[in-house]
Amino acid sequence: MNKIINSLDIKKIAWLGAGAIFFMFDRYLKSIAIKEHSHFKIIGDWLIFNFVPNRNIAFSLPINGSGLNIIICLIIIGIILYLLLAKSNNLEKISFFIILLGAISNLIDRLQYSYVIDYLDLKWFTIFNLADVLISFGTILLIYSLLKKSHD
């Protein structure tokens, strides 16, 4: 049994499981945000739970139109899926999987509501959600993996 499950496999399972938990927690918080239109302080005035419909694209860039955003999201998800399947490096695969989870969660919002549900209001920054955190973290992990590979 130990030969089948080695430490590398456990690390991969942990990364994938953590990504899946963040995905499910994001979906749960989005359901609370849209049903309750909640607004409450998490950490003083620095971090507030606040429902905001985001009709724009990533980081609230002013590219909008639900059809256009859905097409852009589908193209991005297609590219991520291709890269996920084409990569042999485990860390790159994990990175693309985490990015994919965030992109799918936001795409579900666009398909269901014509906007993305944002709910974390960070003072002096932006309003975002855990799917955005998944995308950002996956991207940082991918950059790390690529830099590490280029130095080997």
In a nutshell, what does this entry contain?
This protein has 152 residues and is α+β, with helices and mostly antiparallel strands. The protein has helices at residues 7-36, 66-86, 90-113, 130-151, and strands at residues 39-43, 47-54, 116-122, 127-128. The protein has one domain.
Structural description of this entry:
With about 150 residues, this protein is an alpha+beta fold. The chain has helices at about 5-35, 65-85, 90-115, 130-150; strands at about 40-45, 45-55, 115-120, 125-130. A 4-stranded antiparallel β-sheet has the order 1-2-3-4. Helix 1 packs parallel to helix 3 (about 90-115) and helix 2 (about 65-85) runs antiparallel to helix 3.
- Spatial strand arrangement across the major sheet: 1-2-3-4
Annotation field: number of helices = 4
Quaternary state of the chains: single chain
Number of structural units classed as domains: 1
Helix percent reads 55-70%
The fraction of residues in strands falls at: 5-15%
Q: What is the SS-derived class?
A: alpha+beta
Order of helices and strands: HEEHHEEH
Number of strands: 4
Mean pLDDT: 84
Strand count, sense and barrel status of the largest sheet are: 4 strands, antiparallel
What Rg is obtained from the alpha carbons, in whole angstroms?
Answer: 17 Å
N-C termini distance? 32 Å
Low-confidence stretches: none
Shape: globular
